[in-house]
Amino acid sequence: MPSTPPGSEPRWLDHDEMAAWRGFVTASNLLNRRLERQLKEDSGLSHTQYEILVHLSAAPAGSLRMTELAEKLVTSKSGLTYQVTQLERMGLVGRRSCPSDVRGVFAELTDEGREALRQAAPGHVALVRELLIDVLTREQLAVLAAGLGEVSARLRLDDGA
Amino acid sequence: MPSTPPGSEPRWLDHDEMAAWRGFVTASNLLNRRLERQLKEDSGLSHTQYEILVHLSAAPAGSLRMTELAEKLVTSKSGLTYQVTQLERMGLVGRRSCPSDVRGVFAELTDEGREALRQAAPGHVALVRELLIDVLTREQLAVLAAGLGEVSARLRLDDGA
DNA sequence: ACACCTTCGTTCGAATTTGAACAACAGGAG
DNA sequence: CTCCTGTTGTTCAAATTCGAACGAAGGTGT
């Protein structure tokens, strides 16, 4: 099904809608840029690598299946394979084979990985706070969480469909 | 100045703050993924290339200085050089030297570029609408625009500083 | 047991992105 | 004019990203 019926004039974005969309895109790019730089300089980690450590750290045994981790990160499987290999070389993450499924692979946080995360987290969180969280009011944060949560949920749905 | 005074416990994100931050990151990644796929399939353009066309189209003479364009796009200068070259090969953008500054280069939208944008825009806008704009209420959009606008503005400030 | 379709993670090649280094020029201060 | 500092766009090597293709298993129905 085409996103727009051919022949009919599409509904363009009005001023407010455009402002929201541009704001989202711009803020996203600027934030990523900043966080990337800060993490790389202070901890030698890319934002992607940091996020891998975060998700593993939050998981039951500090380990997650590759596919599950890729979904949480919203990245491609091949991209994750690459980054896990990098983290493995740094000694921050290890691979374990899954007992119940020969094909399965667990990415597992090492002690060094936990330590690296413990060391990187404060600076990262402080910057997220400074650039985003503390700039917004409580109400704005609530709306953002609710709205973007809904957006994400819907995106995840027909992504699997 | 260190982001966090060494020795003091950093202010972690509480539940709501974390929800807002995760929602932002996740929605951003999922959206980019989708838009990238749609644009590439329907128009053979990457999201970056599409945005270049949009910004040029909105500019006075359909042309902008490389540096200015890079800032609007929130990308590196070298990255822009690469993409403009790609668009030039496709015939959608041309380069013109600046009269008042020998070093300067204008990226200029060609007629084909305008046509390509005219053709790509409806599908892109429709998807942005479906995935983000139409998911949110008028109030949520207003809050998002105001909040992320402020965030972007601040980020742009000490980026130049 | 068999065929069939799905899932798992990796590998591969191509495209993209970035920061640093660079050469050429602009714009003043002296 | 001359030196000095900042800007402009490009080039370069390195890192990262993605999708498609792949081999190897899992799981199901017959």
TrEMBL record, chains A, B:
Pfam families registered for this protein in UniProt: MarR (PF01047)
Coiled coil: none
Gene3D superfamilies in the record: Winged helix-like DNA-binding domain superfamily/Winged helix DNA-binding domain (1.10.10.10)
Start and end residues of each HTH marR-type domain: 17-153
InterPro entries, alphabetized: HTH_MarR-typ, MarR/SlyA-like, WH-like_DNA-bd_sf, WH_DNA-bd_sf
Domain of life the protein comes from: Bacteria
Protein name per UniProt: MarR family winged helix-turn-helix transcriptional regulator
Species per Swiss-Prot/TrEMBL record: Kitasatospora aburaviensis
